[in-house]
Amino acid sequence: MKGIILAGGSGTRLHPITRAVSKQLMPVYDKPMIYYPLSVLMLAGIRDVLVISTPQDLPAFRRLLDDGAEIGMRISYAEQAAPNGLAEAFVIGAEHVGSDPAALVLGDNIFHGQGFSGLLQRAIADVTAGETGCILFGYPVRDPQRYGVAEADADGRLLSIEEKPEHPRSNRAVTGLYFYDNDVVEIAAGLSPSARGELEITDVNRAYLERGSARLVDLGRGFAWLDTGTHESLLEAGEYVRVLENRQGVRIACIEEIAMRMGFIDPAACYALGERQAKSGYGEYVMDVAKSFAG
């Protein structure tokens, strides 16, 4: 499965702090925001990732992540000149996806929970085996009217999906993580812009719903899903990460550690990556986990 991180947009809700830097390069406590969605794809076992961003921001992402080789990944880049909708990621990324299934994660979404890697890998296995064409991830929210809302039966089969409904049929918000079979490329290419001039990801999901080939995986208790689109939510996300890391002594979305534990790189390579950042607590942590893993 190929991965796509959509890290475009102008971040207007975070102005003025995003007037000079991409939102997805802003810190969420101790690491750049893009580390969090990248870590999701890595935990799923995806090693070939396309980062889509604005022409002015792409050079900064390249400086941060390079080609991904040092963490055992292959990272490439593509431009989204204007915020033309989430589904445009599959138009821009058609060559990257090729004939493979694809995962899309939004660059400002943070996921965390016990057993997340296994859940992701099982979902990919279902798509790869042709058991379903689309897997969405739902999260219970107090105010579903603000989100795309999905309704599913007891087996997880998607029954309906609505964008910001006045009377929601469930309290499950559709998160910014999507798994699709290869048909998504053709579906996205055939979309017409919505009334707001965008290629809507909800229209992609409806296409799979109409085929009877969409499922909803419920991220319930034990999971956290955080959006970082406002000043308040950005601060709350940083505080969430800070509290967990300080209490548990582990780092969330530490891409060097994940690469080592997933077998993308060996402990020596992980230690060397930490050594390059040794003056920070983050670098010290990477060296410590590498030594512990090797021992």
From TrEMBL:
Family matches, as InterPro entries: G1P_thy_trans_s (IPR005907), NTP_transferase_dom (IPR005835), Nucleotide-diphossugar_trans (IPR029044)
Annotated coiled-coil segments of the chain: none
GO MF term list: glucose-1-phosphate thymidylyltransferase activity; metal ion binding
Root EC class: transferase
One Pfam family named in its UniProt record: NTP_transferase
Catalysed reactions, as listed in the record: dTTP + alpha-D-glucose 1-phosphate + H(+) = dTDP-alpha-D-glucose + diphosphate
Enzyme Commission code: 2.7.7.24
Domain Nucleotidyl transferase: 2-239
Keywords attached to this entry: Magnesium, Metal-binding, Nucleotidyltransferase, Transferase
GO biological process terms, semicolon-separated: hexose metabolic process; polysaccharide biosynthetic process
Named cofactor requirement(s): Mg(2+)
Function per UniProt: Catalyzes the formation of dTDP-glucose, from dTTP and glucose 1-phosphate, as well as its pyrophosphorolysis.
Family membership: Belongs to the glucose-1-phosphate thymidylyltransferase family.
NCBIfam families the record matches: rmlA (TIGR01207)
Entry protein name: Glucose-1-phosphate thymidylyltransferase
Species for this entry: Pseudonocardia kunmingensis
